[in-house]
Structure formats: structure tokens, C-alpha cells
Amino acid sequence: MSITPHDERFMAAAIRLSRWHLGRTATNPSVGCLIVRDGVIVGRAVTALSGRPHAETQALAEAGVLARGATAYVTLEPCSHHGKTPPCSEALIAYGVARVVISVTDPDPRVSGRGIAMLREAGIEVDAGVLEAEGRHSLAAYLTRQTKNRPYVTLKLAVSADGMIGRKGEGQVAITGPEARAQVQALRAETDAILVGIGTAIADDPLLTVRTPGLESQSPIRIVLDPSLALPLTSKLVATAREVSVIVVASEEMSPLSSDAEGLPPSALPGISPTGGEIGKERDPNSPAPDSNLSPSVNVAQGARPDLISPLVGEMPGRAEGGASTADMDSRRAALEAAGVEVVHCNPYHPEVLLPALATRGISSLLVEGGAKTARLFLEAGLVDRIQLYQAPVVIGGGGIESPLDATDIPSGFAHTGTLMFGEDRLDEYERGL
């Protein structure tokens, strides 16, 4: 059956629906599903919070007997494997759906093509690739974790008219207006984790939560690159660590297990244990794959440069090179952990190792918010997938902190995908192909 404008219209609606729970479905993708009978939507759903139930089973339950002979529009290929829940393909077959229209084929090797084959073997007509570009965009975080073994990374920068992102020694400086700041809150709400360098954490003392009324519970995990555990106990991040998770990434040399890891390159320390907070063992490739769709092992992220990224001088007040003793470091670690902060050990200058480690925890999307040196670190490593560049009419003047990029020097490989205005502030978005 050929694809019709009605198919595209219903798939566009399913894609819009899928965005409702971005950043809130744990390790599972946020999928949209519509059940349509005689041109009328009789069931609709998005993957539930925390990732289960899946969209298809919920939409089918809502449609009930009306699902028989209907068409299902699904943004991602229905699963075909038994995880913690039965396969969605089996549910579609059991309800008697006549046709399934899919936007994106699932790259998960447990599913890829198998869901489609299962449906066709049951006599169900299947059409795939409908509005695929739009579907891939909505599933970008999940697809990146599946195909590149790391989170999808968004770099957000707010730049003044004179090319600055702040002013030295003054903490947070408002560059954009309230409309743009509200949009950033929405971005945080649909992102799994947000990352800053220790210099920004100390200078700005940011909260990094979602402050839009009603969306506070969607605050992302907060990550600080902090080689020598310099994050002040009086900071807002530490003070709120028991309400919203905070992960501090310290150098391997700061680890109480560093003697066991002595001589190992960072690539030999690829996975953050979900319970222990240590970069350590790889997942056993012979163990059953979890329903979370995590990769069985961690490799260097695709597109990353394997060479060492130079230390971010000036981004890490209180570095251990100054002579902090092991006892001092143990004391700092204990104090942070007592306040609810999780301390993990991984070379902060190796994002090509850190990102796959975060992916093992089910983190599919990461927002890098600062500072300039941390932004440059990810850009130089080739590990930014999307750039959100806000440009404001504000002039910073003397003592400004220069932006690591502006609209005239966007790295090669990025395509300009759109411009939006928020009050007087302009947002330009650039993306790499998935």
C-alpha cells in the first residue's frame, strides 16, 4: 500500500505525542503510538514515565475491540523480544491490527527488522520509513546511545553582542531575556543529564534544575567535572543533592581504588557502576541484555578523537597538583558523599571515555552548559551533536569571557536547522546528521 497524506498526518501527530515524555522514560525511548480506524483516532499513547508500559500496549488497551482491523502508527519499530514486558509486536497481532505504519526502524539488534518480520508473518501489512527524518529527530537521544554507545550531546551557549558568555569574577551574568531562559528550562526538562565544569560550578554556583512551575520534578541529573573534588559543600548543587542527583567526576588518581588501576589507560576504565560509582568493569557480554537497551560493552565513542584532550587550565580551582594529600582527598570525598553527592572516577579530560560510561547508566541525552573551557573540550573531541546558540543584544564589555564559538565559526559537519526569536534574543540551532 502506498503512503498517503493521511499516513503522514497521523505519523506527524504520533511524533508530536512522542515528545511529551522526552527525558522521562529512563533507558527506553519515548515512543508515540496512534490507533486509527476509518480515519478516526481510537487509541493513543506515549511511552509511560520510567519507560513502561510501552506506547503500543497502552494505545491498544484504549482502543479495545476497535483496534481490530485498524491501523497503528508507531514512531519506532515495535519491539519483538521478551524483556520485562511481552513484545509489543505480539500485542499488535493479538488485538487484530490490520496495518502498522512505522517511522524509524529500531537499531537495537534484538529488535531491528524482527518486529517488522513478526508482524508480516502474522499477515499484518507494514509500511516503514514514514516521516523518517522527523522521527529520527524525535528519537535522537535513543538512536545515538544505540548506534554510538554514548549520549546525544547538546551544547547550549548564550552569547552577548560582543561575543562574550559572561564576565570574569562576577558569577552568573544574565545575557538572554526571560523568554529565552524559559526555553532553556524546557530543554533541561527533556534532557537526562546536564554537565558543567568545576570552574563554572564555583564561579556561578548554579542550581541547574528545572524551575518552570509544574516541571520541577523533571530536573536532569547534574554532573560536574571536578578532578580534585573542589566543589564547595556550601554550593547549591551540594545543598540540593538529596532532592536532585549530583554526580561529581573526579580524576582516577583521586579514587580509593587508584592503586588497583595504576598503569591502566582511561579506555580500560570504561563503565560507571550503577551502584558503586566507580569507573570499572565492563558489562559481561554473556549476561542477558537488560530491557533498558543498554549496550553490552563500552567502546570509544564513534566520532571521538582518541587522543588526550589537554587539561582545562583555569577550569579547576584547587587541583590536586597543588599538593593535596590523600587524607585531604578522602575527607573531601567523604564529605560530598555524606551530603548525597555521588563521586565517580574517570579522567574528566577524556569525554570519549566518560560519555560511554554515562550511557551504561542509561543516560541518553546530555546538555553541556558551561563554561567556555568545558564547551571547547567537547567541541575539540568531536562529541557535540547539536549546538543551541543564543545571541542577545546585551554588551558585556571589559572583563568578558569570550565564547568558544559564534555563528561565524560553527565547526564543519553541522547543518543550520533553524532560527527562532525569543523576545530580543535569537536562537540558531545546528545539528550533525544522526
TrEMBL record:
One Pfam family, short name: dCMP_cyt_deam_1
Occurrences of domain CMP/dCMP-type deaminase (ranges): 5-127
Biased composition (Polar residues): 289-300
Associated pathway: Cofactor biosynthesis; riboflavin biosynthesis; 5-amino-6-(D-ribitylamino)uracil from GTP: step 3/4; Cofactor biosynthesis; riboflavin biosynthesis; 5-amino-6-(D-ribitylamino)uracil from GTP: step 2/4
UniProt keyword NADP present: yes
UniProt-listed SUPFAM superfamilies: Cytidine deaminase-like, Dihydrofolate reductase-like
Disordered: region residues: 255-329
Sorted UniProt keywords: Hydrolase, Metal-binding, Multifunctional enzyme, NADP, Oxidoreductase, Riboflavin biosynthesis, Zinc
Matches recorded under Gene3D superfamilies: Cytidine Deaminase, domain 2, Dihydrofolate Reductase, subunit A
Cited InterPro entries: APOBEC/CMP_deaminase_Zn-bd, CMP_dCMP_dom, Cytidine_deaminase-like, DHFR-like_dom_sf, Eubact_RibD, RibDG_C, Riboflavin_Biosynth_HTPR
Listed EC numbers: 1.1.1.193, 3.5.4.26
PANTHER family named in the record: 2,5-DIAMINO-6-RIBOSYLAMINO-4(3H)-PYRIMIDINONE 5'-PHOSPHATE REDUCTASE, DIHYDROFOLATE REDUCTASE FAMILY PROTEIN (AFU_ORTHOLOGUE AFUA_8G06820)
Family: In the C-terminal section; belongs to the HTP reductase family. In the N-terminal section; belongs to the cytidine and deoxycytidylate deaminase family.
Function: Converts 2,5-diamino-6-(ribosylamino)-4(3h)-pyrimidinone 5'-phosphate into 5-amino-6-(ribosylamino)-2,4(1h,3h)-pyrimidinedione 5'-phosphate.
Protein name (record): Riboflavin biosynthesis protein RibD
Species name: Rhizobium esperanzae
